[in-house]
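Below sits my pick:
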Amino acid sequence: MVPADAPAYRALMLDAYARHPEAFTSTVEERASLPPAWWETRLRTDADAAEVVYGAFDAEGALIGAAGLGRESRQRTRHKASLFGMAVAPTARRVGAGRQLVLALLAHARTLDGVRVVQLTVTEGNRPAQALYERCGFEVFGVEPMANLLNGAFLSKLHMWCDLDTAPPAI
């Protein structure tokens, strides 16, 4: 995606935060208050961008899914990247868009010098998302209890990782 896609990206993500608040650490209110420049910056495409966001588009060119990858910046953790902000529009689920996004980000991670591991978190109990990540080569390595608080209830997060050297090649 490119900065010009920021309005569609913002709309997709705000809808995801509203529909599935249990799946995200950010709230719709927090993200809705961010200026357009924040969304545009997240979609930077220059080589030194700290993160990249990929989009899935339908046949008419509408954005139907998005996910991002951020690389660790510290010297001792530069071998790791984090998959973040995975969202697929309800009308586009179960057609492979999510899988293609994850595999595309893993392929991108493989192009980053020295990156060996991609990590992510998924809310415990979100079986469809966990199963998708497992099909793409991720494994659970831990549970963070009480990771988020939503409407007075604590939610745990599963921590998952994918070793790029042993995971199946993407796409």
Remarks:
- The CA atoms of residues 3 and 41 lie 7 Å apart.
